[in-house]
Amino acid sequence: WICPIGNPKPSPCVRGPGRPEGGDEAPPSPLPRLRGRSRLPSVQSPPTFGFLLDIDGVLVRGHQVIPAAREAFRRLVDPQGQLQVPVVFVTNAGNILQCSKAQELSALLGFQVEPDQVILSHSPMKLFSQHHDKRMLVSGQGPLVENARALGFKHVVTVDELRAAFPVLDMVDLQRRPKTTPLPRNDFPAIEGVLLLGEPVRWETSLQLVMDILLSDGNPGTGLATAPYPHLPVLASNTDLLWMAEAKMPSAFLQLEAAHVVSDMHEAVRLVLGKEGWAL
């Protein structure tokens, strides 16, 4: 589907150069038409349309480019390897740096993709500046601290750091239980919010510690008679339940499942960001 932009009058979407949905005549196409063997003029006006493209299952599956996507980009790139129309890539991936995702796409697609052409699932968190000065617990994997700071969060604590300060909170894995009872901590600064940037590796640890932070109002070393309300803010990204990689069957139960558990147990998630899909 090609949607013209920058038109002062409402215009229906056009399927290729054909007719608009529900109309008898096609509006003028935003794409130049070639007649016979004529060539495009050497100087062209800026394009009046662009593309906003999903990545996984649309352009690539895992580390393999979908053949139709490669052919489509061949038509969009000039002989110098430059895109001739604006293109932005969106993904629910969040366990990678924006610049690293751009480099990954550049290697797969065969042309230069800039970091500002990539929107990760948590990229919109840059807009929520009211939380940027709070001390936030961050859950996920990959470059968590770097991603959180790139989003504007100045004070972040990882789940591993919280677990090291309060090892008795993580009791599911028998092999990781402390062998002796550690001294209680009363010098740990309070947590003021939670960031779920992506699916964790040790789900049981992340879920346990996130719930402990919520139930203790950010002070896991203390006990409260009742659960606080309103609770601390929880910002989550990535609404995927299923996604396509190289496997024949879809990969499942990613960040969405963790957000579901937290939400169902404590009605906690304030904000969920990401592409279309399940939302609270």
UniProtKB/TrEMBL annotation:
GO CC term (a single one): mitochondrion
Lineage, uppermost ranks: Eukaryota, Metazoa, Chordata, Craniata, Vertebrata
Protein name per the record: Haloacid dehalogenase-like hydrolase domain-containing 5
Gene3D superfamilies for the chain: HAD superfamily/HAD-like
Keyword tRNA-binding: no
InterPro entries documented for this protein: CDP-alcohol_PTase-I (IPR050324), HAD-like_sf (IPR036412), HAD-SF_hydro_IIA (IPR006357), HAD-SF_hydro_IIA_CECR5 (IPR006353), HAD_sf (IPR023214)
Record bears the keyword Signal: yes
Family statement: Belongs to the HAD-like hydrolase superfamily.
Pfam families: Hydrolase_6
NCBIfam families (UniProt xref): CECR5 (TIGR01456), HAD-SF-IIA (TIGR01460)
